[in-house]
Amino acid sequence: MTRSFDQLWPLAFRYAAMHSPYYREVFHSQKGIPALKTIPPCDKSTLSARNLDFLCVSPERVIEIVTTSGTTGQPLLWMLTEADLRRLAVNEKLSFECAGLTARDTVLVAVAMDRCFMAGAAYWLGLREIGCAVVRTGATSPLLVLEMIQRVQPTAIVGVPSFLRIVADKAREAGMDLRHSPVKKLICIGEPIRDAAFGLNHSGATLESVWGAKVYSTYGVTELANSLCECEAGQGGHLHDEQLHLEILDDAGQPVSDGEVGEVVATTFGVEAMPVIRYRTGDCAALFRGHCKCGRTTPRLGPIVGRKNQKLKFKGTSLFPSALTAVLEEADQVESFVVIARKESELSDSVEVLIHGAAPIAGLREAMQARTKIAPQIRVATREEIESLQLPAQARKRRTFVDLR
Ligand SMILES: [Zn+2]
Predict the structure, then answer these.
(1) C-alpha 187 – ligand 1 centre gap (Å)
(2) How far does residue 99's CA lie from ligand 1's centre (Å)?
(3) How far is the CA of 291 from the centre of ligand 1 (A)?
(4) Which residues have their alpha-adjacent CB atom under 5 A from ion ligand 1?
(5) Per-residue pLDDT tens for 59-112?
(6) pTM confidence score
(7) pLDDT tens digit string along 310-358?
(8) What's the gap in Å between 288 CA and the centre of ligand 1?
């Protein structure tokens, strides 16, 4: 039997207020069950400052410890009990079922299983729960992925879009046409494959064409031990509302209307080790409550349009850097680029774009103006200058947006 928010919220509240040192403190004078919306949200800085004060169980009940990025330079520790791993398995099963996976599928997991990440283990658990055959290639060797595609004939791959594009490049170099491979579904994590209107972005369209496969976006957050995956309709990731409650809030902390972009704020249900209440993820997206073509009635989370702290301000309007980078990704003759934001005043930021390639600057500025209403300064730079900005020393990820504000 399914349980409603009105049944789940009091359970989540009482559990956290009783077992979590952090929430015991926050709720010590609370009488009765408060309305969720009256509880002050917490964010990553709270999680960083009070990390293990969120732990609700004794250490011997913890069976899995992973990390997630923090705000202090040191990753946060995130812990799970046996029941939490079961919950995670059920969550990923529901997510993969949205993408239509069944026990008949053979699925290649091109995601790291190690380095303290939760994601790889979560996918493995969910695919096991469905009964798929799982091949864990990881994401370090495109050649291993190609070899296993030939040897085990997988029907789906779970991976990061940029890595799946690298695999496709290696296949082309080796004279292998992936469109003739049995891989028909690419479950994409970590990077957007759609724009805010659900159309495929450059990355998503490229993947569908070179792989001859359908792309599905899945969005997960370690601190929520949860993911939301698109169905065939590609109209947002379906929420599993017995495990998670989502709100979308504006800059003032007020709920926005259906379909409007704001910050994703989440409350977990059924988590034993480290539940969170009104956690500000820092990710911005819209929630859609209408019925989906697939028949599911659960809310859907639209594409992540950016991080809240990356939002740019321009003379009264605001936009996410992803709107600018999307234009550059689609442009011909732009080999590499980086978008740099600087603070001009309290009310406005300035943006400079460095590009490497033969694209005419006037045309790029026009395309940006048409799509985003912003025409930033564009300068041609050397490949080396752009790379040094994209990948500074000690960075884990290549970036196309540099925030100097
Ligand atoms: Zn659907």
Answers:
(1) 15
(2) 9
(3) 8
(4) 231, 233, 292, 294, 296
(5) 999 999 999 988 877 899 999 999 999 999 999 999 999 999 999 999 999 999
(6) 0.91
(7) 999 877 778 889 889 989 988 889 999 999 999 988 888 999 999 999 9
(8) 11
HEC readout, the chain:
CCCCHHHHHHHHHHHHHHHCHHHHHHCCCCCCCCCHHHCCCECHHHHHHCHHHHCCCCHHHEEEEEEECCCCCCCEEEEEEHHHHHHHHHHHHHHHHHCCCCCCCEEEEECCCCCCCCHHHHHHHHHHHHCCEEECCCCCCHHHHHHHHHHHCCCEEEECHHHHHHHHHHHHHCCCCHHHCCCCEEEEECCCCECCCCCECHHHHHHHHHHCCEEEEEEEEHHHCEEEEECCCCCCEECCCCCEEEEEECCCCCECCCCCCEEEEEEECCCCCCCCCCEEEEEEECEECCCCCCCCCCCEECCCCEEHHHCEEECCEEECHHHHHHHHHHCCCCCEEEEEEEECCCCCEEEEEEEECCCCHHHHHHHHHHHHCCCCEEEECCHHHHHHHHCCCCCCCCCCEEECC
Residue 299 has, within 13 A of its CA and on its CB side, a CA count of: 18
Q: How far is the CA of 234 from the centre of ligand 1 (A)?
A: 7
The Å distance, Cα 95 to ligand 1 centre, comes to 11
Enter the tokens of residue 219.
């969005």
